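Chain A, query sequence.
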Amino acid sequence: MKVVVTSGKRKTAVARAVAREGVGRVRINKIPIEIFPQELLRKIMMEPLKMAGDIVKNVDIDVKISGGGIVSQAEAARTAIARALVEFSGDEELRKLFLQYDRTLLVNDVRRKLPKLQGGRGARKRRQTSYR
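Chain A, predicted structure.
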């Protein structure tokens, strides 16, 4: 039995996907993706599944997500699912399709929050100076 383990990251969210031969089930933290509560997040996570087409019918994917906020968790899961599909199928055309559509499907988003700096409340905001 073929098993593929992949991961996806976005900000501080980490998603681990395990792909096995199966009948097309996709679960996010043990919840089937079809009944995932937030509709927008469900659509974000289903993008690679819709683009892959018939390949999904032969694969069961279990995704475990931890850390970060809900949107970054969805985007990390999206990356993990897309990587699992490409690695499981070994299809170079699917890989090119994902990269052409959106590079973050296969490549982690490395952007991070700027650290707070001296002289202000955050990364950009500063105390005003008076000139009079």
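The chain has one domain: 3-105. The first strand starts at residue 3 and ends at 10.
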